Amino acid sequence: MRRANRLMTTGCLAILIALIIVLGVVVSWLWYRHWHDGDVNREREEKAIALIQKQARATADDTARALGTSGTDDADALTGVIWQHSRAPVIAYDASRREFTATAARTAQYDNRLLLPGGGPVEVTRCFVFTYTYRPGQAWTSRISERDDDVCRPGTEIGHMVRLALQRISNMYAEDLTRAGVQDALDPTGRRSFDVKNVVREGDTMTVAVLVSSSEAAVDQCYRFTRPAPGADGLGSATAVPTSSC
Asked: Which of 76, 125, 154, 233 would you call most buried, defined as having the most Cβ atoms within 10 angstroms of its Cβ?
């Protein structure tokens, strides 16, 4: 009996030791995977951020060249050039300094690697302020500064609101394209997010000037919406571009 008990005890100890070794291997492997995946994800995030920054610098350079070859000094036309290249939802113009400031968030995605469920695409965002300055006798110059996300948040909100306004104006009947009609279509609850300044028809084109404001009017931007003006029962796809004033 004593020998059997000793054998049983030895066997239990061997099994326990084997279980401890297996558990240790599993824990070590899990820890390594966690560390390795974290290292891979950090590298991928850094590459995504570097790509955003590279694209922002390219946008600034391309826009400055386009401003230089635009052949105009009209503020609205120059605002349109900046919009065409940057798609910045907020573009301010300082006439005294002959300087434009465009604020825009830029995003990129990377594949987040995880051992457990929950991985997949992750979006990283960076906020940039682009400054374009003209001095007589000199070329347009550009500067970029990276800012906190709070700086770009009002502009991002305005961008969403402009897309909503595009949809609503595109779906309006031509006979309803009056200042009061557009105001009611864009801001039916009276939140004053949209302030329709005027509606002008020139030939077969309707132009709507709207001041678009972010929450609590923290930031606002004038936009010119343009769409065809067919018969009373016709609809038309609208376009939008920011302007220096309404």
From this structure: 154
Terminal CA-CA length for the chain: 101
Task: Fill in the amino acid letter for 22.
Answer: V
Helix (H, G, I), strand (E, B) or coil at 221: strand
Contacts for 156-160: CB closer than 8 Å, 24+ residues apart: 156/89, 156/105, 157/214, 157/215, 158/89, 158/90, 158/212, 158/213, 158/214, 158/219, 158/220, 158/221, 159/89
**Beta carbons of 186 and 196 less than 8 angstroms apart:** yes
| pTM of the predicted protein model | 0.79
Q: What span, in angstroms and rounded, lies between the C-alpha atoms of 235 and 231?
A: 8
What is the reported pLDDT for 53? 95
Q: What is the mean pLDDT of residues 40-59?
A: 90
Kind of pairing between the strands at 194-202 and 205-213: antiparallel
Q: Are 105 and 87 in contact (CB under 8 A)?
A: no
Q: List the beta bridge partners of residue 213.
A: 220
Q: Which residues of 95-129 are buried (b: 16+ CB within 10 A; e: fewer)?
A: eeebbbbbbbbbebebeebeeeeeeeeeebebbbb
- Contacting residues for 52 by C-beta, under 8 A, at least 6 apart: 106, 107, 108, 124, 126
Q: CA-based Rg of the chain, rounded to a whole angstrom?
A: 29
Alpha-carbon distance of 144 to 212, in angstroms, equals 25
| pLDDT tens readout for residues 183-193 | 999 999 888 89
The pLDDT value given to residue 13: 61
CA atoms within 13 A on the CB side of 122: 16
